[in-house]
Amino acid sequence: MSEGAAAETATAEAVERRRDAVRTRADLLAVATTEFADHGFSGARVDEIAARTRTTKRMIYYYFGSKRGLYLAVLEHAYAGIRALEAGLEVDHLDPARAMRALAELTFDHHESHPDFIRLVAIENIHRAEHLKQSEALAGLAAPAVDVLGGILERGRAAGLFRADVDAVDVHMVISAFCIFRTANRHTFQAVFDRDLLDPGRRAHYRRMVGDLVVEYLTAHVGRA
């Protein structure tokens, strides 16, 4: 084999190894997300994650350093998912009220389809964000949501549509509160009120409701003395 061919082969093998590493890491994160969401940090078993991914604890520790490192990576990955959707939301062509509805509906859709994310957030709150506070990515976990919301609020105020006494974090809290409650409290709510908050027949109603809540609040009292 010529030197050129050998170099080309080595490069191809290196690329494939990198692809394998990316796939392996993604598989580990996916399985670990379910394991931690189901059992919490203390109850989750690295042996179970290894078995379900047909790998070894040694390999997991190679990628993530420790069980704590794996858990933190799961949290960061979970938050990165919703933040990527928020950052990619194209709303500049929409009027401010419609743009705000679009963001609320995006959050609604994401939280409904990612119950593990909701459970991870609940678990981390039980531990007072002990692990999340250690994240090197923490500083960037809020930026997409705040930036998108801030831009919509600014346009709405400039148009005389939105009130000026709330900021992006306030609005994010309102949207998150509705969307997280609907998923996190589904079972207790049904037991007490005999209503399934994730009933497909009520989905459109609740999706519209979260948009109504946010837009009506932002436009309340605007222009009044």
TrEMBL record:
Alphabetized Pfam families for the sequence:
TetR_C_29, TetR_N
GO BP annotations of the record are: regulation of DNA-templated transcription
Does DNA-binding appear among the keywords? yes
For the HTH tetR-type domain, which residue ranges apply? 22-82
Q: Which PROSITE patterns match?
A: HTH_TETR_2
The entry lists its GO molecular-function terms as:
DNA binding
Positions of the DNA-binding region: 45-64
Stretch forming the signal peptide: none
Print the keywords alphabetically: DNA-binding
Designated name of the protein: TetR family transcriptional regulator
Species annotation? Actinomycetospora succinea
